[in-house]
């Protein structure tokens, strides 16, 4: 057959694993730290540069009081200087807990016979989404176990259903996914359904440790999981989220793994992860793991601050696994997205189940505040809760990067859109006390906009008060 350069496709060449355990340990073991070095590295972050592995290791190895103080203050300064006081809100929606894998930290593991298995029917799915909309949610993350039933076609249909449900003035404007890794064709299919971010957590970047926790099923293949988001990129899905489950291995190694994964994506696809997640292990039905690698609150706070400084442009997610007090504190160190009103038992947005049954859910959560309670506390802290989905819907992908790198982007787009989505929430869902606090916070944030922008936003708020919805720029 004649060679045709138009139709020739390179055969799939297996990717070289980009996590080198020895290299990461070498950095961790041989990078001394001092307050002076820490200061210089923080200046680099504040000048909006991602840190390399050596610099990240220097921050991780900083154990003296002065350096730790510098790191926390640096993260706070970066968060305030670059992102201001917005916090994006979302809700998780568990669609199905069937799973063919045996991850020993997870209640959904196939060997857990106590877990009551369920997949939401289309009707149940619609009712859950209606309940979420009626509380004011606009952004969802759909969560699935790894099971043949939850194939790309099923995930895509679920996404389309989520976008189609409209209850009262409610609607879902962005659907993200946390599900099993797909092949390139599968990623293409879910992208076409209009998803936002596709998250796949590596759980632990340590290859040997990984084997001990993933006993059975497709997820036991470390490399297939590690390269998932490369396949997503190949499929044109460039909005991806990475994460590590903190407590499986040394947290310092995981931070290095997350930064290495980030610079791999940057180097190969010119785009880093949209979000980084760092869930900590919580109790689960049939949880069988030792506590040796559990990170204390103090270590966890450092981890968050270090990640903020190491990858200044990315979104950072902190979920209701953590209690409200810790969440309120960690928001200052650079977290940009949190869930509110979270329920993880299948079907519980409708049933309003109060006590979590571990045999019907993946793990235990520690923040069971309603969405409105979360918003109230954010407002009390002077934060600006946001349901904005503008960039994604206008095709401005990589918005975190734009917020971060385009001068004035936040004041031109993010703050006005946060104000407008909060105004909708206050009009449609908030009790009077929350509304009063909310309008005050809106006024305060308005002061930071120039006069022209203020006029535009005031005009849009007036239209919202007259019943128009979904106004953004
Ligand atoms: N089945 C998909 C997968 O494994 O990628 C979806 C993941 S699961 C539904 C979402 C995430 O929850 C996992 O990636 C893991 O990091 C986290 N997780 C699992 N068990 C947990 C536990 N006991 N405590 C806290 N987080 C847990
Ligand atoms: Fe299944 Fe994911 Fe739980 Fe593993 S973490 S058992 S793949 S749901």
TrEMBL record:
Note one Pfam family from the annotation. Radical_SAM
InterPro entries, alphabetized: Aldolase_TIM, BATS_dom, FeFe-hyd_mat_HydG, rSAM, rSAM_sf, ThiH/NoCL/HydG-like
Keyword terms: 4Fe-4S, Iron, Iron-sulfur, Metal-binding, S-adenosyl-L-methionine
What are the transmembrane regions? none
MF term (GO), any: metal ion binding
Q: Which positions fall inside the Radical SAM core domain?
A: 83-313
Please state the span of the N-terminal signal peptide per the UniProt entry: none
Q: Which cofactor does it need?
A: [4Fe-4S] cluster
A biological process (GO) of this protein is: sulfur compound biosynthetic process
Output this protein's name: Thiamine biosynthesis protein ThiH
Q: Which gene encodes it?
A: thiH
């Amino acid at each position: 057959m004649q060679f045709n350069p138009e139709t020739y496709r390179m055969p799939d060449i297996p990717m070289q694993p980009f996590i080198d355990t020895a290299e990461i340990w070498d950095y961790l073991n041989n990078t001394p730290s001092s307050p002076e070095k820490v200061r210089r590295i923080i200046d680099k972050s504040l000048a909006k540069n991602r840190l390399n592995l050596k610099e990240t290791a220097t921050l991780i190895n900083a154990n003296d009081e002065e350096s730790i103080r510098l790191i926390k203050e640096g993260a706070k300064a970066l968060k305030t200087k670059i992102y201001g006081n917005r916090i994006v809100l979302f809700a998780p929606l568990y669609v199905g807990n069937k799973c063919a894998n045996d991850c020993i930290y997870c209640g959904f593991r196939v060997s857990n016979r106590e877990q009551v298995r369920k997949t939401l029917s289309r009707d149940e799915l619609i009712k859950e989404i209606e309940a979420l909309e009626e509380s004011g949610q606009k952004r969802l993350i759909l969560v699935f176990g790894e099971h043949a039933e939850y194939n790309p076609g099923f995930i895509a249909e679920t996404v389309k259903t989520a976008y189609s449900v409209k209850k009262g003035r409610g609607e879902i404007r962005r659907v993200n996914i946390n599900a099993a890794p797909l092949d390139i064709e599968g990623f293409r299919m879910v992208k076409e359904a209009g998803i936002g971010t596709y998250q796949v957590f590596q759980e632990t970047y340590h290859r040997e440790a990984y084997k001990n926790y993933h006993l059975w099923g497709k997820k036991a293949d470390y490399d297939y999981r590690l390269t998932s988001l490369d396949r997503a990129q190949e499929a044109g899905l460039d909005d991806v989220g990475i994460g590590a489950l903190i407590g499986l291995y040394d947290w310092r190694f995981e931070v290095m793994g997350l930064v290495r994964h980030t610079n791999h994506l940057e180097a190969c696809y010119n785009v880093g992860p949209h979000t980084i997640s760092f869930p900590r292990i919580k109790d689960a039905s049939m949880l069988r793991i030792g506590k040796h690698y559990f990170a204390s609150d103090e270590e966890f706070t450092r981890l968050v601050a270090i990640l903020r400084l190491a990858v200044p442009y990315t979104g950072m997610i902190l979920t209701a696994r953590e209690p409200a007090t810790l969440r309120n504190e960690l928001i200052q160190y650079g977290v940009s997205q949190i869930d509110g009103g979270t329920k993880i038992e299948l079907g519980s947005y409708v049933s309003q189940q109060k006590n979590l049954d571990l045999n019907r859910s993946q793990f235990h959560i520690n923040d069971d505040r309603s969405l409105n309670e979360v918003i109230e506390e954010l407002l009390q802290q002077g934060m600006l809760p946001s349901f904005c989905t503008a960039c994604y819907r206008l095709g401005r992908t990589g918005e975190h990067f734009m917020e971060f790198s385009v001068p004035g982007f936040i004041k031109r787009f993010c703050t006005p859109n946060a104000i407008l989505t909060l105004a909708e929430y206050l009009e449609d869902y908030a009790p009077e006390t929350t509304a009063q606090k909310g309008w005050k916070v809106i006024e305060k944030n308005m002061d930071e906009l120039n006069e022209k922008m203020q006029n535009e936003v005031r005009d849009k708020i007036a239209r919202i008060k007259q019943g128009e919805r979904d106004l953004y720029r």
